[in-house]
Amino acid sequence: MVVVTLGVYWMIYLRGLLVPIIVASLLSVLVSPITIQLEEKGVPRIGAISLTIVLFLGLIAGILYFVTLQISEMIAIWPELLRKGREWLWELQLMGYRTFGFQPTSQMNKLQEMSAAVLSDSGSAMLLSTTATLADTLLVPLYMFFMLYYRNFFCSFLYKLLGREEKRRINRILLRIYDVVHNYLAGLFIVMVIVGSLNTISLLVLDIEYAVFFGFFAALLLLIPYIGVIIGSLLPITMALITKDSPMYAVGVAGAFMVIQFIEGNFITPCIVGSKISINPLMAIIALVLGSIVWGIPGMVLALPLIAILKVVFDHSERLKPFGYILGEPSGAEMAAWTADDDDAPAPKKQVRNKIATQVIDEVA
Questions:
Q1: Using CA atoms, how far apart are residues 32 and 55, in angstroms rounded to an integer?
Q2: Which among 245, 266, 246, 264 has a CA at the least distance from the CA of 256?
Q3: Mean pLDDT value across residues 326-351
């Protein structure tokens, strides 16, 4: 408990250092195949790494340029959106008055007081946080360059630290971590493109403004498992409520996003990402909560890949294997052995279940 407490303390205290380094490490794993292919074609290592990072930054710059254009267009029609938003808010206030007896003027006063309190209390803190985040983001490409350049050097360090006799096991762990992280990130990128396209098509069918922006923004929030989809659907739902005369458009947006999320969770992600990160949902949610407590939103984004890396390390250590086991998904046989009550089951079904349970116990033993 002392070690865990000190570890969490230093993770919080060194957030500005650790988060960019971890992000750079994961992105380095993602783009490393490009660097390796360029080196195999005779490009010097420095040139290959520089070209890889330039291509990666070019992709990010293109995405940011598109987002900036969309936001600029929304700013141009902001007065109209604000007017419709006030009308919609007034309708909600009247509904609250008819249902609960709240006076509309008191509701507005409370909203204004809350907004003023939030701005006065956290305005400077938000400014400082944004400045620090931008500074940390600028360090990520630099960290990526040196991680790609010194990748063999870091492996040699692990051999010296853990002993040459552990070289084979270290290589297995590193290759497994590379496989998990690379396939997860590459697969997640493909999933976001597919889901963003489906979101955009559904919003275009419903004639929601800025369908491309809202569709791919919601897909980008897949980086935050379980929670990101809910957050991403709120913006187009709000836009539908403000810009459309009927609330059924907002209901249609919510329904379309629910269907797409069902398809993504049950078909798209399992087929593309597969079982590269076999973390059970309970541990994934706990990791998200802990990540948000320690590092905020970056912690929620990094929670799943980090816990997957921990599982790889635990699975390759005899003393830590039980922790890797509890993080993973239970097998079908284990679930089937304990899900139903033997007293309520028919005799043939009880015999089959008892046989499965015996096999599971023998395998574990």
A1: 12
A2: 264
A3: 58
Interacting residues of 177 by C-beta distance below 8 A, sequence separation 6+: 309, 312, 313
Reported as a single tens digit per residue, the pLDDT across 230-287 is: 888 888 888 887 778 788 888 999 999 999 988 887 788 777 765 556 788 788 888 8
- Is residue 279 classed as helix, strand or coil in its secondary structure? strand
- Please provide residue 328's backbone torsions phi and psi, each rounded to the nearest 5 degrees: -85, 180
Mark out the alpha helices in the chain (DSSP H runs): 2-13, 15-40, 45-76, 78-100, 104-149, 151-162, 167-205, 211-220, 228-243, 248-263, 269-272, 281-295, 297-315, 321-327, 332-338, 347-364
Read off the pTM.
0.74
Name the packing angle between helices 211-220 and 45-76 (round to 10°): 130
Contacts of 90 (CB under 8 A, 6+ apart): 104
Instruction: Return d(Cα 239, Cα 220) in angstroms, integer.
Output: 18
| Phi then psi dihedrals of residue 279, to 5 deg | -100, 130
39-60 confidence digits (pLDDT tens): 999 999 999 999 999 999 999 8
**Running DSSP on this structure, what letter comes out for residue 331?**
P
